[in-house]
Here is the input.
Amino acid sequence: MAKYSKIISCGSYLPEKVINNSDLPAILETSDEWIRARTGITQRHIAADGELTSDLAAKAAKIALEKAGLAAVDLIIVATTTPDTTFPATAVSVQKKLGMHSGFAFDIQAVCSGFVYAMNMADIYIKSGQAKTALVIGAETITRILDWADRGTCVLFGDGAGAVILGESDEPGILSAKLHSDGQFQQELYVDGGVSINQQAGLLRMNGKEVFRHAVEKMGNVVLEALEDADYGIEDVKWLIPHQANQRIMDAIAKRFKIDSDKVLSAVAKHANTSAASIPLAICEHEAKLKSGDLVALTALGAGFTWGSIILKW
Ligand code: COA
Here is the structure.
C-alpha cells in the first residue's frame, strides 16, 4: 500500500467573462474603492449562459491530466456547492466529459471547505490502496446563487474551477489533515432555499461580520492543529494557502502567525471568492513558486461552519 499521496499536477479554468468592480455601481450602490478596501477584490469571472459547473471542472481537469501525462484516474471527487443538478453528481458528468468509463466519482458538499475535505478523502482512498490516482476538483458557478441586489454579498464571489491530481508515492506528500464542523453556525451563512425546503436552489445569505471573525480564528487554529499532527510548527511552513474569501482575512492570519505576507499565497484580487474552487485556483496561480519539498499548509472555512487544514510536502 502507498505510504503517501502526493500532488502530481494541477490545472485551472476561469470563465471568459470578467466583471470589474467599476462595472458594479451601474447595478448597485457600491464603489471600486469600498470593495478593494474591505476585501482586496478587483474583479471576478462569471460563467456564460449554459456553461455548467461540470464544464468548468472538466476544463480544469483536462489541463491537470495533460500535465500529468494521464488519460484516466481511479477516482474523481468534485467539491462543489453549485452542482449542475441535484443528482446525479457533477463528478459523473465530469467523468463523462473526460471520456472516462472506469473508476468511481462522487461530489462532496462542505461549501468553501470542500476542497480540503475532498483532498483528505482522496488521500485516505489512496493510502488504503482503493485508488492509485485521484482527480480532486473544486468547481463553482456560485454567482448563480447570488442576490444581485444585496451589496453585502454579491460583490464578493466569482466562478471558476481548479483541479489537482493526487498519486501514490513513497516520498512525503500529504502529511496530515484536520477537519471540523459545527452546525450551530448554520444561520451565519446559508442559502434560503433547497430541494427539501421549497424545491428552489435559494440565494446566498450571510452575516459578514460573524463569518469574518470565525474565519480568522478557525482557519488559524486548525492550521496549528494539523501542523502539530505532522510534527511541524508554523515557522516551518513555506507557503500558507488559505481559502480565498477576503484579503483582510488572509492578512489577519499572517499577522496572528507573525509570518511574512509573501508566504500567504493570494489570488482573491482577480478571482474573488470562488468557494470550493479557491484553493486549487490559488495553487495553480502560484505553481511556479512551489518547489519540491516545500512545506505547504492549506486551510479553509465554509458555511456550516465547516473548516479544515491539510499539511503537505510539495
Ligand atoms: N459597497 C458599499 N458599501 C457596502 C457594501 C458594498 N458592496 N457592502 C456593505 N456596505 C456597507 C454596509 O451597508 C454598511 O453601511 P452602514 O454603515 O451605512 O450600515 C457598511 O458598508 C459597513 O458594512 P459592514 O458589513 O459592517 O462591513 P464590513 O467591514 O464587515 O465588511 C464584508 C463586509 C462582507 C466585506 C466583511 O464582513 C467580510 O468580508 N466578511 C466575511 C465574508 C466572507 O469571507 N464570506 C465567505 C466565507 S466562506
About this structure: The radius of gyration is 18 Å. The domain at 174-313 is CATH 3.40.47.10 (Peroxisomal Thiolase; Chain A, domain 1).
